[in-house]
Amino acid sequence: MTDSIKYPLPTAEREDLEESLGLIWHKRESGDTSVPSLREALSAAGNAAAWDRLRNEGFVAEIDGRARLTDKGESTAAAVIRRHRLAERLLTDVLNLDRAVIDPNACVLEHILSAEVSESICTLLGHPAECPHGLAIPAGDCCRRNADQLSPIVEPLSRLKAGQSGRVAYLQLKDHPELHRLMALGLVPGADLKLHQTYPAFVLDLGETQLALEEAVAGRIFVRRA
User: Fold this and answer.
1) d(C-alpha 140, C-alpha 126), whole Å
2) Which residue has the higher pLDDT, 150 or 32?
3) How buried is 121 (Cβ within 10 angstroms: 0-12 exposed, 13-18 middle, 19+ buried)?
4) pTM exceeds 0.70, yes or no
5) pLDDT of residue 1
6) Is 207 exposed, middle or buried (0-12, 13-18, 19+ CB in 10 A)?
7) Could you give the CA distance from residue 113 to residue 97 in angstroms, rounded to a whole number?
8) Do 179 and 173 touch, CB atoms closer than 8 A?
9) Rounded-to-integer distance, Cα 140 and Cα 83, Å
10) I need a surface site. Which of 21, 54, 84, 150 has the fewest CB within 10 A?
């Protein structure tokens, strides 16, 4: 079996379908599932006939004027969103690309990453739960297995040992009461730190500041080892 057969490039029709499902997913995240609103958004994106096609092919259903992804639509949309947001994390956390180029490149990668590559990226990044914009990354099989065959390039601060250093990649503390205090103290993506102790609290140097963190908080701060 040749690579082109095993990993075929998506057709333009397939890309349009995935883009449309992704748009519906985004609208649902913002709380808007009105079918007229979705039709308008799809039309504005250049896919005026997308809603009827998705419904006819069993990806969506309409109930009382509201859109609902079917099981088929949910799994397909989740896979697209997962690939896009993992690509964003890879381009941000590993390649350190400028934000202006991250989204357009992630939009390309979301259509071509295979399941195997997506799982490898996810494992390499320590199974991130959120994209750089703070939106949830749908979990994959590797997350549910907590696969660790690859040594993650990004991992929770709680995995570091005393004496090790790292650079903050991202924080999964969007709704945590500690978030603003820590950010005000300089614990932000790109900050360098050194861990001094792990018990009874995680004590670290952050520039001229020394911080003490609970293990639960340290487990939601992701770093790249120095």
Assistant:
1) 12
2) 32
3) buried
4) yes
5) 42
6) exposed
7) 19
8) yes
9) 10
10) 150
What is the average per-residue pLDDT within 117-139? 92
| End-to-end Cα separation, the chain, in angstroms | 41
- Do 97 and 44 form a contact (C-beta atoms < 8 A)? no
Domains defined along the chain, listed by start = 1-152 (1.10.10.10), 155-225 (2.30.30.90)
Contact 211, 203 (CB under 8 A): yes
Type of residue at 43: S
Q: Are 95 and 154 in contact (CB under 8 A)?
A: no
Name the residue with tokens 């250049």. Answer: 46
**146 contact partners, CB below 8 Å, separation of at least 6:** 127
Alpha-carbon distance 218 to 224, whole Å?
14
H or E element that contains 122: helix 115-124
**pLDDT score of 4 more than 70:** no
- State how far the Cα of 52 lies from the Cα of 81, in Å rounded to an integer: 21
Closest CA to 196 of 161, 169, 157: 161
Q: Which amino acid makes up residue 144?
A: R
